[in-house]
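ok so I'm stuck.
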Amino acid sequence: MKALITGATSGIGKDMARYLASLGYDLILVGRRKQLLTELKKELDVDVTIMPLDLAEFDNVELVYNEVKKQNIDILINNAGFGLFGEFSKTDIETEMKMINVNIKQVHYLSKMFLKDFIKRDSGYILNVASSAGFMAGPKLSTYYATKNYVLKLTLAIYEELRRNNSNVHISALCPGPVDTEFNKVAKGEFHTKAATSEYVAKYAIDKMFKNKLIIIPTLKMKIAIFFTRFVPTKLLLKITYNIQDRKTK
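replied:
not stuck anymore, here's the structure
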């Protein structure tokens, strides 16, 4: 059994690697920071291959697939991603283009390529790490929210196609709220609500993935919040979301 995890150097990806290793899965870990991947490899008592690559560069995304496509991957976890706080007119365009490459293009490409392989053998799991942001628009975190909408909606569409074809391939979207990871440091913001631990979110997500859960929301608080967003007028929801993101940048 073997799993491929992107964004495995820290946070949710790192703890997913630990949990899958405890279940006996060999791992292929992708991330930008070689030292952190090496340290994680030493920690895990399974066969681990590390691929220190920046997935903002599309050549590296293609390299990942071409290097491992013959290894009979059982699980693909598209976890790599990052955000950037600020008003859309003021945020750095180069950073946003890299975000779109990581949060959307590499998820799209790896999902499609591995999905084809999984369908041929009629088995496999894909877990796309989206966000509670995938259900809304996000003033002052606009590009990130938009990318996570893409990931969530793409996952939902693939799920229905697989269901209609009676496939034994399963796909899920992880949609957590605040998680205690490096996200805020990278995005240059700060949570003002209690964040779930990455260990809890990682274990919860993988357990639900194995139960073929489509949308995985780890905490009751976020389940309730997302449920009620469908009853809130769009403009009011935008105001609420703006205020939440504005607090993070202060």
